[in-house]
Design goal:
CATH topology of the largest domain: Bactericidal permeability-increasing protein, domain 2
Strand content: over 45%
Radius of gyration: 34 Å
Shape: rod-shaped
Structural class: alpha+beta
Largest sheet: 7 strands, antiparallel
Number of domains: 2
Mean pLDDT: 87
Number of strands: 23
Distance between the termini: 4 Å
Helix content: 10-25%
CATH architecture of the largest domain: Super Roll
CATH class of the largest domain: Alpha Beta
Number of helices: 7
């Protein structure tokens, strides 16, 4: 069972860095309520497994004098948390309150009095009207993940009823008052201690938060907090860095995240805004890593195409190619020369790429002979969607423009090659780009979290994902 209201707990991480977030996350009242339901089920199961320590003491009881007593082997046989509430304190954090809780215990008792007389048996204890309140303190661990602890816990027992088995009734009456007080004091302290342990155990699950999420062999995304969260009466807003980095080389791009705000939304449990900064930081990383380059060969073009990647096809437009390199296959190298630029406008995602295309003739001995180098400006439109807990997409070519940078085969009109390169981009380059985009990029998530009823909007400057949550046990 996924423990507690982990997403809500993230809202208390005390961080105050003055950096605009690349990703914003909002947990709504609907999400908080879902977390409370899951949390209470987890807490109830957790508390049922607690071990109550033995207690013993000595009391002077008239008329027999000193009575030594002990209660041992106490186990919880039933526990209920019928009423609970998770409250947000604006500007402060999260409070948990539990009302009308009850606990049933079974254990052994033993007394000794008049130095030599002993008696023992078993007992059943019913605790009713138990009230528990606590605040949750959260700090960052040494790698930037949240670490939680219980503070200011108070537990109050409404009523306590103990039934002894074996022994004699007059003996119960002599020391039951002292046993009642000892048990009440123990349980009120122990319940808060056990609750603190249960909350502390959440740290094992919070460590699954993908603060640094691997993408591929080139990149990873950092989702650490960049500012203190905004806690209101109805929601928690989290500000995450949301920046791509090259693995092992955390170099900042020559641009910064711009401020943006999530619009009011209440239908889903959680909303996440992924800004253009996040997308453009990916372009920066992949371009610097040399990953946005591609060799294009004839086998990447559909067999049915009348246009082939050889000197015969290109020689029809550039005679010098056919003359100097007859009947040879060709290879193209497409690569970016600037970081691609991604823009988000309402219902529209556009990517602008600036690069070069170098054409080679493949000699019979596999040597590459350069033919020409073209400058290329391309614009593509993107469709963005959520798959699992990842943001994915696919692109289509809008337009392309080319100019001649260098020619090794004399001057020629580049416009004659427009249709050829447009076809090559559509049938060879775009499908490979889409195959990579289809793999997706991880959104901030916890280990056993699934997204359901997901909706996506393209707004100015960012993509808004609205989703409900489902946690697997």
């Amino acid at each position: 069972m996924f423990p507690w209201y982990q997403l809500a707990l993230l809202a208390l991480i005390p961080m105050t860095l003055g950096v605009n977030p690349g990703v914003k996350v909002r947990l709504t009242e609907k999400g908080i309520e879902y977390g409370r339901q899951i949390g209470m089920a987890f807490l109830q199961q957790k508390l049922k497994t607690i071990k109550v320590p033995d207690i013993s003491g000595t009391e002077r009881v008239a008329p027999i004098g000193k009575v030594q007593y002990s209660l041992s082997r106490m186990v919880i046989v039933n526990l209920g948390l019928p009423e609970s509430a998770l409250g947000l304190v604006p500007g402060s954090g999260v409070n948990l309150s539990i009302q009308k809780a009850f606990i049933s215990l079974h254990g052994n008792w033993k007394v000794k009095y008049l130095r030599i007389i002993k008696n023992s048996g078993s007992f059943d204890l019913e605790v009713n009207g138990l009230t528990i309140t606590t605040a949750i303190s959260i700090k960052s661990d040494d790698v930037g993940r949240p670490a939680v602890s219980s503070v200011n816990c108070v537990s109050i027992i409404g009523s306590l009823d103990i039934k002894f088995h074996s022994g004699t009734s007059w003996l119960y009456n002599l020391f039951s008052e002292f046993i009642d007080k000892a048990l009440r004091d123990l349980l009120q302290k122990q319940i808060c201690h056990l609750l603190a342990d249960a909350i502390s155990e959440l740290n094992l699950h919070l460590k699954t938060l993908n603060v640094l999420a691997p993408v591929d062999k080139y990149a990873e995304i950092e989702y650490s907090m960049v500012s203190s969260p905004a806690v209101s009466k109805s929601s928690i807003d989290l500000n995450l860095k949301g920046e791509f980095y090259r693995i092992g080389q955390h170099q900042e791009p020559p641009f910064s995240a711009m401020r943006f705000s999530l619009p009011p939304q209440v239908n889903n449990m959680l909303y996440a805004g992924v800004s253009a900064f996040t997308a453009n930081s990916a372009g920066f990383v992949y371009n610097r890593a040399g990953a946005i380059s591609l060799y294009i060969t004839d086998d990447m073009i559909p067999p049915s195409s009348p246009i082939r990647l050889n000197t015969r096809t290109f020689g029809a437009f550039i005679p010098e190619i056919a003359k100097r390199f007859p009947a040879l296959m060709m290879k193209l190298l497409a690569k970016t020369v600037k970081d691609p630029i991604i823009t988000f406008e309402p219902n529209n995602v556009t990517l602008q790429a600036t690069g070069t295309v170098t054409a080679y003739a493949i000699q019979l001995n596999a040597t590459l002979s350069p033919l020409f180098v073209l400058n290329m400006e391309a614009s593509v439109s993107a469709q963005v969607y959520v798959t699992g807990t990842k943001l994915a997409g696919d692109v289509t070519l809008n337009k392309m423009g080319m100019t001649l940078e260098t020619s090794y085969v004399g001057d020629f009109e580049v416009r004659f090659l427009d249709s050829i390169f447009s076809m090559i981009l559509k049938v060879a380059v775009i499908p490979m780009v889409n195959a990579h985009l289809e793999k997706g990029y991880p959104l901030p998530s916890l280990g056993k979290m699934s997204l359901v009823n997901t909706k996506l909007q393209i707004l100015k400057g960012y993509v808004l994902v609205g989703t409900d949550l489902q946690f697997r046990g």
